[in-house]
Amino acid sequence: MKVTTFQKAVLLLLCTALLLSTTLTVSAEQQSTPVSATVIAQNSPTFTLTIPATLETESVTRTSESTPYSIPFEITMSDLSALNGKTVFLHLYSGDDGFNLRNENTLLPFTVYGPLDPVTPLKNGDLFASFTEAKTETGRIQIDQKDITSSGSYSGSILFSVTIE
Description:
By secondary structure, the chain is mainly beta. The chain has a single domain (46-164), classed as Fimbrial-type adhesion domain (Immunoglobulin-like, Sandwich), CATH 2.60.40. The chain has one helix spanning 5-21; strands spanning 46-50, 68-81, 88-94, 100-103, 106-113, 127-131, 135-144, 158-164. A hairpin with a 2-residue loop joins strand 4 (100-103) and strand 5 (106-113). It is elongated.
């Protein structure tokens, strides 16, 4: 069978039409790009809280009757900014030996009094003070001289916890 030029042209047109009507599907891999960022919270509260590192006493002598000996201390809140209506709370916790001073194997109990109620001793976890502005609060540690059972140097610790609410 002899194919004419006309038949070749029709055949070419049919093939072209077939190619043009075919849907071409193209696939691409989906890729993701990791993004990292450092976010700094704006208006975060800042403040300076000054708590004495140590408290020193004069020489204290044992007495036969109850004789309170007080050691005053100050805690200062300053440089407050961006509290946005929040309050800084300062809670008090006992050290490893509880509210006791230690001299080798001897314990000497002490009590802590805060500015909110200078008459009632604070207990472990109690609120010592709250701050919404710069100020200084006064507390005191008190020992009873009749509780001294041996001479020597005593030491202990008090822990403070700060929260903002």
